[in-house]
Structures
1.
Amino acid sequence: MRLTVLGRSYCHLCDEMVAEIRRFAAERGAALTVDVVDVDADPALEERFGERVPVLVAGESEICHFRLDRGALAAHLAKDG
């Protein structure tokens, strides 16, 4: 499954979320690909998300923001099978 973290290059919470997603995947043996998109590079994303980063999304579904919500990610993975 492909996940996207919407964040910023200088955001420590963004780095922490990516690392936590990788730990989550390793613990469960899940095949997760994590892309990181810099919201500052896209005016529409910067306007939409502002300071509410990082945001974890899968396609059009927002899973969580600021910190990884392991329960929400597990529920999303279970739903999408």
Note: The mean pLDDT is 95.
2.
Amino acid sequence: MRKYNFISFSALSATIVITIQIIYSLINNGSSICPNEGCEIIKQFASLPPLYFNILAIIYFQIVFWSVRLLKNQFLNSFGLLLLLGLVFESILLAYQIFVGQTICSYCIVIFLFVLILNISYNNKQLIYGVSIIGIILFAFSILTFLPPENSSQFYSLKNGSYGFKSYKNPSKKIYLIFSSDCPHCVNVIETLKNCNNCEFYLNPIDKIDTLKIDGLVLNNSYSIEINRLILNILEIKEIPVLIVKELSGFSFIKGERNILNYIDSTCFDQTPIKFYDSTSGTSDGDTTISIEDDISCLIDINCDN
């Protein structure tokens, strides 16, 4: 009796938590109650709005709740299967956050824990099944690379990760800026790029951009932030902004606000250069050069306020 009462209470508690999240989101224009930035980042990877996920979660927990109440605590084989299905779904979402998004949504973890508690509370066999499912899913994701197949590599080009670009007649360089909408150092770089007149520049965000007012900017309505995050993950770069410069021999990567501004000042304006970035401070590996001089930047997934 206590076991089923606890399951019923847990399902109802989860419903209340999700309902509060939905109400908060509707009042605050889609924002969520989340202790970290992972929720906003993971939201960008979903093809459905968070509201739909929350509604599905409420339906699931209500099915669990009323199954217990209407069955009057009687054992039913299909009830254990219902709990496992929820755990499979939440485990896949957790694995995706860890191995693809490489950030954790705190609110998602709370929902995952509710589903895990339901399974643990059912019986010992359910606990064994649950732990096995979580382990198998995490292991499966850990051995996958999530890199594009060779025949679809064009989809993963830098241009397809660009929110928009601005070009000039006979530009001296083609550059790509990887940035975040909430990083002030990125904003400073973008403000400088607005006035440049000698570089074709592309803006590659790692989060969704609502509006970005730049005269002459050609927008790409189907840009993919996943491409830009994938590039940073492959290169193990944890800070933004990052400027990618297309050279005849390959690509150069410049990190940090000061380094990037120095490069833009010296390359992307017709007037005499004022500053110069130190290309000797980088490391070179074949056709790829990365400037690694200490500089002001924003850590990915963390708001930067100074």
Note: Residues 150-299 form a domain with the Glutaredoxin fold (CATH 3.40.30).
3.
Amino acid sequence: MQGGVRPIRLLSCSLLALVCLAGAACRPADSRSSAKSIGRDRPSPSAVASPLPAPTYTGTASNASTLPQPDRPLPTDPRQAAAALASTTRSLRLAIDDWLNGTAQATEDPGLAVSLLALYQQRLYGLLIARPSLARATLARLPRWLSGEARANLTAGAELSALTAPLSHPAWFRTGRAEPAGVLLKAFKQAERRFEVRWEVLAAVMFVESKFGRTRSASGAGAQGPMQFLPQTWSAYGMGGHINDPHDAIMAAANYLHRSGAPSNDRVALYAYNHAQGYVDAVLRYAGQMERDSRTYYAYYNWQVFVRTASGVRRVTGPGL
């Protein structure tokens, strides 16, 4: 830790809920778990082995019937799973391109195609994290253009899932709408210019901490806002802003990370932000994917909030709710 920076302990209710890529991926923290295992090998209640046509998107005039509905069953055959993930990812990228071409700064609603395809992609990754044998077989069947990205997402999800436990008071968990993707991206890039912290790293932190501001609950330790600051830490790095304001929180996080060692040592800076090596690795994996293809930022932006409780997992934001 550098410059007297105080660590922000962020193993909070937002992280507990948000590291779960989908219901099937969520599991209690286990000291024996590791990222290599990619979760526990158990079936998802929404997974099926019967053949399913892969979701497709052919442009803004696509028929809604070709898009995956929020409760669409997930394939459990590795060939089907690989085909579904490849088709969904390709279709999602096309839908994102159309979204951005229609609203250059992505300041409007992404539309049904992006929302449904992103949710199905998220649920597919969740299933694979929950079933490591299926994940290994599916990875072996993915096209080369997708295999690296898929492995990074699966590993990051497993790393974060190992840090989580069920919410003790799910009724207290609050959510809200995220600021438009383009508005947040502008803030990330403004923070990068001022503090030299890569915008992809800031976006990955916000993605992990609050799904880009969708969670509104404070942690058990009192961490607040879309970047989950403790009030005393905010007093030192918030620069007079409001802890719950997305723009102010992004700037404060960049300030904190810069004082902690970024950009010369992002790992040290992120470890100061959260003392968990799995957290650091996951954030950098997500950041790397966004740096490789900026459309991945818009895909992550449209991933939704799932919460895990003692009685099961449920989605609390997104299409159909």
Note: The chain is about 50% helix and 5% strand.
4.
Amino acid sequence: MTDIASLLPHVGTALMIERVVRWDETGIVTATTRHRAADNPLRHAGRLAAVHLAEFGAQAMAIHGGLRNRAAGMPMQPALLVSVRDLELARAHVEDLAGELEIAARVLLATPSSWQYEFVVTHDGARLASGRVAAMAHALPAGQGR
């Protein structure tokens, strides 16, 4: 079992991913029910807009990077999400979907200081969202994150 909280600077309800299904050097598959959680901080007026699935994809990317670093004996490397591109959404909101969402992310580019991944979010085999996310290494300000 993967300790996801140790791989992300996010804490508490800001963690969108609950478990790692599988991963290898080139990608990761994760799963979560956080889209249904009433305390999800991305909700507005009780709804979770599908556009926020980009954050789920970004967290899957960050978890994958953390697992790769851990496997190489390197520490977690804080980063900032710098872009979301080619975002495609199949519906407006997702909080009413029963069961888990599956988030798959695949490395497109990885350097020591920047990463780009493509991601796909599915529910019960149907595609809900897809796109690309990019991040750049960035030290966290004092007092933020871990």
Note: The radius of gyration is 14 Å.
